[in-house]
Amino acid sequence: MPAHEKGPTSYFPAIEKKYGRPVQEWTDLIRAAPLTRHGELVAWLKAEHGLGHGHATALVAHTRAQGA
Predict the structure, then answer these.
(1) What is the 3-state secondary structure (H, E, C) of the chain?
(2) Disulfide check for 56: which of 13, 26, 35, 51 has CB 3.0–4.6 Å away?
(3) How far apart, in whole angstroms, are the C-alpha atoms of residue 14 and residue 16?
(4) How far is Cα 20 from Cα 67, in angstroms, rounded to an integer?
(5) Do residues 15 and 59 touch, judged by C-beta distance below 8 A?
(6) pLDDT tens across 2-53, in order?
(7) How far is it, in rounded angstroms, from Cα 32 to Cα 7?
(8) Hey, what's the torsion of the CAs at 53, 65, 10, 29, to 10 degrees?
């Protein structure tokens, strides 16, 4: 990842390292979730998968920006 990386993707290396899953796996989970609202998805990732708020927010924002 370039040093100048900004936005949600700047969290991806830390997310993969901390939680042991590739980002694609997280985006697949988000897309398969029965929830649709940003806040609901963030809360779900935090409660069900133990993600921190910033990491959950970054994953949801990135996934939704891709048209999930």
Answers:
(1) CCCCCCCHHHHHHHHHHHHCCCHHHHHHHHHHCCCCCHHHHHHHHHHHHCCCHHHHHHHHHHHHHCCC
(2) 51
(3) 6
(4) 25
(5) yes
(6) 455 677 889 999 999 999 999 999 999 999 999 999 999 999 999 999 999 9
(7) 23
(8) 60
Q: How far apart are CA 57 and CA 51, in angstroms?
A: 9
**CA triplet 29, 21, 1: central angle to 5 degrees?**
110
Residue whose tokens read 């697949």: 28
Single-letter amino acid, residue 66 = Q
